[in-house]
Every structure is written in C-alpha cells, then in structure tokens.
Design goal:
- The chain has helices at residues 2-8, 18-33, 54-59, 71-81, 117-130, 149-163, 166-176, 180-188, 195-204, and strands spanning 42-46, 63-67, 87-90, 103-109, 131-142, 207-211, 223-229.
- By secondary structure, it is α/β, with parallel strands linked by helices.
- The chain has a single domain, classed as Vaccinia Virus protein VP39 (Rossmann fold), CATH 3.40.50.
- It has a seven-stranded mixed sheet.
C-alpha cells in the first residue's frame, strides 16, 4: 500500500477536471450519508482521501473521524476542517488508540484495491475492535476479477456525459495512459475480489456480510458490501 499512499500524497492527475473531482466526492458523501442510521452516530471514514464533501457527512452524524494514511493529505484535511467541531482527523495508527466499541459506522470506500490481502485483514481487525456490537462496516468500490478496465472507462464516460465534463474525461483518459498512475497500476496492480470471496474474507475476520444493491460512487460494475459483527463467535 505504501507506493499508492505516496502516489496519492503527490500532485497526481487522477481526476479529469475540478468538476470531476468535486462531483466524485459529493456523490460519495451522499452515499455515505445514506448509511448513517442516526444523527447521534459516530462515523469513521477509513483512508478517506481528500474527502472534500466530508462536511455533508458530518452534518448527518454526531462525530466524523477522517482517518488518512498520507501525511500531506492528512495535513490538508486538518486545515480544511479545523473549524468543524464534528470532524476529527486521524492517522491510521491513531485508530489503535481509539476506544473499543466506540464507532457506529465505518466506511472503507475505494481502499481494498490498494491493499495487500494481509493488509486488508489487519484493517478489518482494527475496524471490528472499534465497531459497536450493532455497528456496521461498509466496504465499497470493490473491483471484480471478471471486470476489466474497459468497464471503468465506460462508467467514467457515462458519468462525465451526464454531468458535463465529457471532453475533459476523454482528455484525462489519454493523459492517464501515459501517467505515473498507469505505470504504478501495471507494476503494483490492484486487488480484485469476487462476491463470495469478499464475503468469506469478511467472515474470517468476524463479520456477517451481504452485498449492497448498489455500489458507492458512480461505477456500477464495482461492488459494495455491508458487514456486521457475526453472532456467537468463539
């Protein structure tokens, strides 16, 4: 995961335009809010990235923790949300010092593909300790083994066409083909999981899991899962 952290901590060009970037975070925030059960909820966004629309999520809950591994991104989060008393920024290491059973909802969106299977298992263990007995883990944007990059491109172009940045998206795709992202993706790769494979992986981590009807974000070819503490674990 370290190489991906370094990439996202750099001045990257993963978004086709500012509009693409802003809409991306607005859509994710909207979908996260849909999983918040109560305005009294404590929510953790695990490896949140820039989280530009986090204030919208914070408005829907009592406290929002933004946990981010990239130090540069984390610094921007702290500066951006310092006036918001409902938002706290943490490193991933800080999560081990949070109280057990203190979080109602954990969201890991577009994270699993950048982690090794062992890193993801470790993250699940941290999350399970933090979740309240009736809490939920929502893990979104899971890449499927049978779905290639072509579907990602189609999903982006449909999203761009619907929101008025198609020209920028086409230019961005051409730029990405020659970018550090494409080279890193080719060298390091992205983790993919089938539906049953992810459910079984979460089961081994102590969760009872089902696939959500819709993925978080704009890409319908990726998957989102909702996990809870499994009952009667030894």
């Amino acid at each position: 995961m370290d190489e991906w952290i370094d990439y996202y901590d750099s001045t990257h060009t993963i978004y086709a335009s500012r509009l693409h970037r802003d809409l991306h975070f607005q859509l994710i925030a909207r979908d996260i809010v849909g999983y918040i059960a109560s305005p009294d909820s404590v929510v953790l966004d695990y490896a949140c990235g820039e989280a530009l629309s986090a204030a919208r999520v914070a408005d829907a809950c009592a406290m929002l923790y933004l946990a981010e591994p990239a130090p540069g991104v984390r610094g921007r989060l702290i500066a951006r949300f310092a006036p918001n008393t409902r938002i706290r920024v943490r490193s991933l290491e800080d999560l081990s010092r949070m109280a057990e059973g203190s979080v109602d909802l954990v969201v890991m969106n577009s994270v699993a593909q950048y982690m090794t299977p062992a890193e993801l298992d470790s993250a699940f263990a941290v999350v399970r300790r933090l979740l309240k007995p009736n809490g939920r883990l929502v893990i979104g944007d899971i890449l499927r083994p049978e779905v290639g990059m072509f579907r990602d491109v189609v999903a982006l172009l449909k999203f761009a066409s619907a929101h008025g940045f198609l020209k920028d998206a086409l230019y961005g795709l051409a730029s990405t083909a020659l970018s550090d992202y494409r080279q890193l993706r080719s060298r390091v790769g992205l983790q993919r999981y089938g539906e049953n494979e992810m459910i079984e992986k979460l089961s081994r981590a102590g969760f009872s899991t089902s696939r959500a009807p819709q993925n978080i974000g704009h890409n319908p070819w990726r998957m989102t899962f909702v996990a809870r503490h499994a009952l009667n674990l030894n």
